Amino acid sequence: MSNELRSAQAKPGPSSSQRAYAQLRERILRSRFLPNQKINEVALASELNISRTPLREALHRLVAEGLLVDRGRGLSVPGLEPKVVFDLFEARLEIECATVRLACERAEDAELEALSEFLSESMAESPDASVDRLIELDLRFHDTIAALARNEVLRQTLSNLNDRIHLVRWIAMEGRRERTQSEHRDILDHMCARDKNAAIEVMREHILHRNDDILVAIKAAYGHVYTLSSA
Fold first, then answer.
1. How far apart are CA 179 and CA 207, in angstroms?
2. Within this chain, do residues 103 and 135 fall inside the same structural domain, yes or no?
3. Could you tell me the residue range of the domain that residue 22 belongs to?
4. Where does residue 14 rank: exposed (0-12), middle (13-18), buried (19+ CB within 10 A)?
5. What was the pLDDT predicted at 8?
6. Cβ 111 vs Cβ 150: under 8 Å
7. pLDDT, tens only, 175-219
């Protein structure tokens, strides 16, 4: 038996809890559950063909990440209460400013050049690209900056925040492609010049954080998920 085959046979696959977690996380991010919808464990266990114990492990993991909430009478999907969404955007704003500052100080020139090449490729993406694809490119740009900051706690926190505001960001991205890409280029130009103050300032302007804009995005997000549920 070859070493490769032995390795493949020895490597355990994902547990039922891990599979349930991945499936449920994807459904939450894709708005397959309504805001404030209660989670029916019995129905989910049957649908996912999984026993209650690993399902609960998956659900508790999602609660720990803020993608589900425990209201004392069972678990439910978070709502889109404005105060909660404002707080999440404010937290994202502060973390993004911290990561871009640290990246200006710590990133190597070659790493910034690689990010510039990626940005050029993303700017050349087809005008017909889906919002999902634009969000993917946007997340990669910001995640790369977080990686260049050399602080995994900040990076992981940012990733979690982006998961929790995914739907609102998805809605807010519509119609903003050219502006978003231009702002990305401005941020990176300042990073390459090692001008952290200017990079921070552009990052602050870049992130959707004005109350009126967020309220519009929340209203549109509610319309989006309820349209999906009735389709």
1. 11
2. yes
3. 3-76
4. exposed
5. 45
6. no
7. 677 888 899 999 999 999 999 999 999 999 998 777 788 888 888
